[in-house]
Amino acid sequence: MSLVYSGVLSHAPGITGRAHLVDNIEKRDEFYAALDNQKTEILATGAEAIVVIAAEHFANFFMNNMPAYCIGISENYEGPIEDPEWLGIQKTKIPGAPNLGKRLTKNIMQTVDVAYSEEWKFDHGIMVPLNFLTPKYDLPVIPVNINCQGPPLTPLHRAWAFGEALRRACDEAPEKIALVGTGGISHWPATPDSGKINEAWDREFLGHLMRNDKDALLNYSDEETYNDAGQGGFEIRTFITAAAAAQGNGELQFYTAELPIFAVGCTVARFEIK
Amino acid sequence: MSLYNLQKFLYELNRDESIQANYSENIDTLIAGYSLTDEEINALKEGDIGLLYVLGVNGQILMHYAALLGIEWFDYLEMMREGVRIHGPVRDGVYAMTGGGESFTNEEKER
Fold first, then answer.
1. What is the pTM of this model?
2. Number of domains chain A contains
3. ipTM of this complex prediction, to 2 decimal places
4. What ranges do the domains of chain B cover?
5. B105 in reach of chain A (CB within 8 A)
6. How many Å apart are CA B18 and CA A72, to the nearest integer?
7. A87 contacts in B (CB within 8 Å)?
8. Residue pLDDT, tens place only, A108-155
């Protein structure tokens, strides 16, 4: 049928793995409620599959063969690769949508040279979103990776083009498809600076994102992002792709920099499908 | 190239339960196929998170490895800071410490 939902959310492992360490319980639960609402909104669309655009963290791809973009076309997946107690998510099997994934891939290839994989182990970048959005793991998942880890990274204008290609491919499929971009905005994860957040930078970026201001979104250089938003800021590619797929304005449903124990400005938003 | 090999070993370890099952007993055999420096080998054998951080191991790979070793979150952060105190700034990659090693969370400060 078409793309029926596009949104973004954070995926930091602390969101589930460090829930018990949080001081600001009220804010944490407000965040969890926003994620639960996102789940409800996605369910209400009647989505038959969910595309999760993630920034993979060396669970499947290494610098011996690093795709800029990759789509999963497997019958099923497993995850998390991390220690389940550390992440707060038990190991499980997740259903895929191989037929739909192959059709999307074939369509996207008309304009973007995307890689594909029939093997994929999910890390926190996908497992944390699924934990909230489809906690029974009963909605088929199509994982999508954008390399945000091992430079050289794909340029932002290519992430936009990838989003446009995803939209076209979804609209030409008979199924109802939901899509989420997951990542962080400014953050310095997995370093001693974990918990550092540049809230002003985040809010400016989110302003551009909610207005779906293509020129402003594509105007960030990796050098500026690294200096102002840390290496974690490279993950804005996933949010930009979700915006490009939606084409409409966004509604920022939740943002806080008051949960630094989660190591990211926690974000939930949805776009108008235009 | 050596850092590449070090990271590749940890990448394989992090994602493969069959390698994890034999890790502590068979580390010599497991790393035999990787061209590593003595410093890197010792860091792996000791589980020296601080040194591995300073050597430039990608933070995501290192974080997953620390979780595999059962290291608690705040201890992991402190091990990286201690590594910088002992060995100096991070030598490679994009996961450098940007400040003086201060904590950015009340939860850690209150420990």
1. 0.97
2. 1
3. 0.94
4. 2-109
5. yes
6. 23
7. 67
8. 999 999 999 999 999 999 999 999 999 999 999 999 999 999 899 999
